[in-house]
Amino acid sequence: MKYAIIESGGKQYKVVEGEMIEVDRLPAASGGQIDLDPVLLMVEGDQIAVGTPTVAGIQVKATVLDHFRGPKVVIFKYRPKKRYRVKGGHRQQHTRLMIDWVGKPGEFKKAAKVEQSAGAKVERPVKVGKVPAKAAPAKAVVVKKSVKPSERKKVAPTAKAAAKPKKVPETTKTVKPSAASKPKKTAKK
Q1: How many domains does the chain have?
Q2: Which residues face 12 on adjacent strands?
Q3: What is the pTM of this model?
Q4: Which of 24, 25, 140, 173 makes a 20 to 30 Å CA pair with 185?
Q5: Taking a C-beta distance cutoff of 8 angstroms, is the pair 14, 5 a contact?
Q6: How far is CA 163 from the centre of its chain?
């Protein structure tokens, strides 16, 4: 497997031919081709070239697919007991790149000539994820019919329910005491 470690925007990325990477926004037009420098490490099979600090004579060519914005990051500042609340947000600008080629400069030109001489378009291998398992057969759906209250069948009460006597609330009349029946308060002398 042939891959390299590059640096872009102060971050390091592992790049493999035919794969996509997302880096901080680069000043390049969509559809354009760019060279990614510096290359910090190059691995080709059993050969490993580690840069001190970079590997000389290695190029990484990539095509700019598009520019997009990352997810929103919410910034919320506050100071307790001071009624200070500030809510803000940020969306980082990114560039999506397709890695076309990793290797020495002369090899890229030879590979391009071989493709042109063949006349046919060479397809790159596409990384395929897991193949979904066969879907389980759909379960039967039971549809309940709604019935109007007037169309419902009336069910006779069971023997237990018929045997219980219904409780009838007793009516009691509460009488408010009248002013005449209350004892009068007398002032002490």
Answers
A1: 1
A2: 7
A3: 0.55
A4: 173
A5: yes
A6: 63
